[in-house]
Each structure stands twice: as C-alpha cells, then as structure tokens.
C-alpha cells in the first residue's frame, strides 16, 4: 500500500507535484461551476419550488414551507436529546467564542482633524445576515458558534442559519442547541448550493440576506463565488487545510497528529508539514501511517484519500525556506512548532489563523480556544484573515465642519475642484461664504 503521505525535497520536487500540492482542491471546485450555476439560477427564478426539489434530489429530504424552518418544539426537543456533559461543553465553547469576538468589536471615534472640522467613524451592524453551517460529513455545533457569535457581537438583529438535515428531516440536536445558545432565531433545514441561493436571493420561505458567511463543501464554495456580485460572502472557506512548520525541536507525535486534523474532514482537504529535519520527516511519515490506522473507517478513508492527493511532508534546507513555502501556500490553519515560535510567528504574512507552540493543535482552535475557525482557504489567506466581528459591521465615516472649519480648507478645496474640472463642486464651497 505504501505510505499515506509522501516526503518531498523542495528543491527537487517536480513541477507537477508542486502544482498539485499548491492548487489543492481548486480543480474540483472549478469543475462543478456549471452544475452549481444551474441550481442557483433555478432557485433564483422559481423560489421554494426549486429549493425543495433540490433538497429532495440531493439530500433525499422532503420539505415544504411548513417544515423547512426549525420550530421551537424541535429546539426544546434537542435539549432533551443531548447529555449534560455535552451541554456544559457547548456552554464553555459559547462563552469562549463570544468573549473573543466581543473584544474584536472596533470602537467609534471622533476627532478635530483640523481647526473647526470634526471627523470620525460610526460603527453600524448589518441588518440581516445568513450563516451556513455544513453537515454533510458530520455535525458541527462549533461552527454554529463561529458564525453566530461575531454577528451577535456586532449587534446584528436578524441572523438566518442554514444547515443540512438528516434523511428524516431533523437537524442534529447538538447543532440546534448550539445555534439556540448563540441566539439564532431562524434556522432552516437547507444544504449546499441551494441554501446559498435561497439566502442570496430569497424565496417564499427564506429571507434574502445582505451577507453569507460560513464554510462548506466545494458546492458551497462555488455557490458563494457565483452569488458574490449580489450579496457579501465573507470568508471564502472551503475544503480544510492545515500546515505544520516544524524544526528539529518539534515532537513528531504532535506533528503527525496535527496533519490528520484537517485531513479527516474530507477527501478534498489538505494536511502538510514543512521541515528542515529529515529525521523528523521520516518519523512523522511513519506515525501518520500508524495514527491513520487507528481512526474509524470513514475518517480513515478521508485521511488516506486527502493526504495522497493533497498532502505532503516538504523538506527544506533552511527554516527561512520553510516560512517562504508557508507564505506562498497561504494556508487556512498554520501551526508553528519550532524552538522560538513567538519570534518565528512574525515571519508569517499569509495565513488564515496561527496556532503557536507545542500545545496549540488545530483542534483546540476548532473548538474551545475562542478565535474563529472559519478561515480563508485556497490561498485566500494571502488577502484576508478569518471571519471576525468586523465582517458583520459597516464603518460609516462622517465630517462636521463649522463655517470656520470649511474656511480653513476652502482655498485648497477650490484649487483642487478647478484642477479636476468640477465647477459645481467649487461653487458649492464658495456659496457657503457668499450667502449670509
């Protein structure tokens, strides 16, 4: 069978291998755009009729306008179905995530920018947002919090949550309880591209939102890309990615364990290690084989398939090369397991989220640490960071000059208006000093 994950030397790696590793699942996403576009157009044009048809076709779930929205009774029932240990864990997770995102909220400010001119910035929440929490490969109460808590911190009044139901039309009770604890009042039993289309354009049963957040499958990623001219899409969060930067001081047991974290999400995920130590690389390779064999079959299959397609242990000559590789890759989750991780952290420019030191496995960030685990994938980490409170806010600037304040800048304003060829601009300024 061979090893589950291969060791490559960066300077001798073939261009084909480098492209495959760097591109990860993007080709899979590109291939489904025509199918996803058809779903979106159909839901946009035919509303509930198309929405419920696709839920029947794709998920085998029969829904209508009376059953698509989770009822209060279903939420109450969910609390009865989970044990006290899980409920307490969900409350701890909620507290951590909400507290972190409350700290993230920016402050309004105002200052006298020049004599007689007050200027500043107001912070205004979006009116209505849509959040997607995936469920096709498992249930993720944690993602409910990661979507909803920053919206709550921002002050969003209406949060719409879509998450896939099981075959019996029910939502996982842990996920429902999480959504309720987070303060979500509108939860819909919807999945995939049809859920994104419903939130983007609205149907008879699902309200149109201003922004859609949340991770998902290739279908969800493609759908968000196709609707982004009509609705905000937040973080482009698709198939999971994890990369561990490790030097000779790292523990191979930790590194191997952490490579598997994102790989077990699905066979379109990616798990990598980049190191300057061949001894570490070889030990990690052996341990990945051992640890994968310990997993349940369906997770074991995900890990095996994803690491053989998009996984790698990359050997470099120097740690500077390791950081260059990581910045080029622009990974969703980046761990730094080195002798001086806080110092090395400053070498990172492109990553969705950073996990620093030997005691920061990605799984801590997935659950109870507090920072958001909805992070950019497919190199989007080169452009932005993870989902945060500001994603649900508008920053509206204002200026309030007195007559003297406008007069202080009048000559410069008039000169610029003349230079740019805008006489109405100039006249609006001058008339303030001509009319008594």
TrEMBL record:
One Pfam family hit: Histidinol_dh
UniProt GO molecular function: histidinol dehydrogenase activity; metal ion binding; NAD binding
Keyword Repressor annotated: no
Active site residues per record: 332-333
One GO CC annotation: cytoplasm
GO biological process, one term: L-histidine biosynthetic process
Cofactor(s) required for function per UniProt: Zn(2+)
SUPFAM superfamilies recorded: ALDH-like
Family statement: Belongs to the histidinol dehydrogenase family.
Name of protein: Histidinol dehydrogenase
Species of origin: Vecturithrix granuli
């Amino acid at each position: 069978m061979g090893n589950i994950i291969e060791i490559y030397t960066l300077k001798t790696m073939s261009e084909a291998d480098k492209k495959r590793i760097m591109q990860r699942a993007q080709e899979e996403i590109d291939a489904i755009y025509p199918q996803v576009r058809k779903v979106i157009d159909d839901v946009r044009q035919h509303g509930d009729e198309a929405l419920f048809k696709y839920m029947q076709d794709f998920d085998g779930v029969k829904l209508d306008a009376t059953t698509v929205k989770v009822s209060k009774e279903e939420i109450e029932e969910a609390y009865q179905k989970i044990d006290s240990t899980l409920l307490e864990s969900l409350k701890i997770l909620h507290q951590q995530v909400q507290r972190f995102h409350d700290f993230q909220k920016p402050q309004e400010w105002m200052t006298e920018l020049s004599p007689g001119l007050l200027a500043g910035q107001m912070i205004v929440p979006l009116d209505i947002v849509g959040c997607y929490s995936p469920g096709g490969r498992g249930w993720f109460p944690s993602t409910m919090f990661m979507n909803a808590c920053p919206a709550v911190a921002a002050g969003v009044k209406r949060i719409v949550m879509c998450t896939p139901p099981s075959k019996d039309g029910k939502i996982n009770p842990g996920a429902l309880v999480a959504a309720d604890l987070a303060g979500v009042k509108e939860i819909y039993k919807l999945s995939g591209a049809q859920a994104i289309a419903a939130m983007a354009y609205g149907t008879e049963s699902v309200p149109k939102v201003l922004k859609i957040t949340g991770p998902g499958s290739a279908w969800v990623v493609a759908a968000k890309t196709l609707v982004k001219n009509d609705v905000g899409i937040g973080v482009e969060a698709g198939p999971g990615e994890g990369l561990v930067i490790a030097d000779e001081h790292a523990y191979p047991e930790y590194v191997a364990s952490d490579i598997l974290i994102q790989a077990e999400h699905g066979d379109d995920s990616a798990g990598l290690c980049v190191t300057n130590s061949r001894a570490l690389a070889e030990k990690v390779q052996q341990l990945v084989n051992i640890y994968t064999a310990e997993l349940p079959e369906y997770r074991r299959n995900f890990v095996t398939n994803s690491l053989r397609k998009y996984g790698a242990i990359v050997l470099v000559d120097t740690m500077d090369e390791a950081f260059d590789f990581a910045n080029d890759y622009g990974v969703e989750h980046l761990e730094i397991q080195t002798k001086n991780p806080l110092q090395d952290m400053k070498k990172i420019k492109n990553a969705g989220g950073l996990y620093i030191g030997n005691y920061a496995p990605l799984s801590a960030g997935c659950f109870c640490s507090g920072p958001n685990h909805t992070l950019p994938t497919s190199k989007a980490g080169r452009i932005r960071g993870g989902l945060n409170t500001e994603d649900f806010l508008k920053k509206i600037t204002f200026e309030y000059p007195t007559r003297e304040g406008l007069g202080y800048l009048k000559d410069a304003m008039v000169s610029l208006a003349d230079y740019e060829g805008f006489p109405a601009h100039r006249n609006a300024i001058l008339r303030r000093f001509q009319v008594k």
